[in-house]
């Protein structure tokens, strides 16, 4: 029996493991200065300059160690709040679960997080 494998990173978000595939992750960067946007939803921490591009920075947890630049729907979005615990190629147990150090990590849904901050008057503000 062949075990399926997926490349990417595993992070701990407020105690729970989550997986971001290599297809989604563009880069991991140090936490930059983030400029808050008045009236933005709480999850939208603001915008930050990354590689000569302004990217929306979305909080996914309480950690403030690094920024993960993700590709979603042709746009870049930065996630802050997870602690990266591993990178590489991981065994999969199901379509949406990878195994890391004996624990299971579900695939993190960047699209769902992006959609939550793109509701109401924020829809389409940065290309969504």
Kindly name the structural category. Answer: mainly beta
Reported CATH architecture? Beta Barrel
The number of helical runs is 1
Biggest sheet details: 5 strands, mixed, barrel
- How many beta-strand runs? 10
Strand order of the largest sheet: 1-2-10-9-8
Q: What shape does the CA trace take?
A: elongated
Task: Give the class-level CATH name.
Answer: Mainly Beta
- The tally of structural domains comes to 1
Annotated CATH homologous superfamily: CheA-289, Domain 4
Poorly predicted runs? none
At the fold tier of CATH, the topology name is OB fold (Dihydrolipoamide Acetyltransferase, E2P)
SSE string, helix = H, strand = E? EEEEEEEEEEH
Distance between the termini: 42 Å
Classify the helix fraction into a percent range: under 10%
- Portion of residues in beta strands equals over 45%
| Rg, Å, rounded | 15 Å
Average pLDDT for all residues: 88
């Amino acid at each position: 029996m062949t075990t399926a494998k997926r490349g990417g990173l595993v992070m701990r978000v407020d105690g729970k493991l989550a997986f971001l595939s290599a297809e989604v992750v563009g880069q991991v960067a140090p936490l930059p200065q983030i400029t808050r946007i008045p009236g933005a939803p709480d999850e939208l921490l603001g915008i930050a300059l990354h590689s000569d591009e302004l990217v929306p920075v979305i909080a996914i947890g309480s950690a403030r160690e690094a920024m993960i630049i993700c590709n979603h729907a042709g746009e870049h979005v930065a996630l802050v709040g997870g602690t990266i615990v591993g990178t590489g190629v991981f065994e999969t147990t199901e379509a949406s679960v990878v195994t890391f150090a004996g624990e299971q990590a579900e695939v993190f849904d960047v699209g769902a997080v992006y959609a939550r901050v793109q509701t109401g008057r924020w829809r389409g503000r940065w290309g969504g």
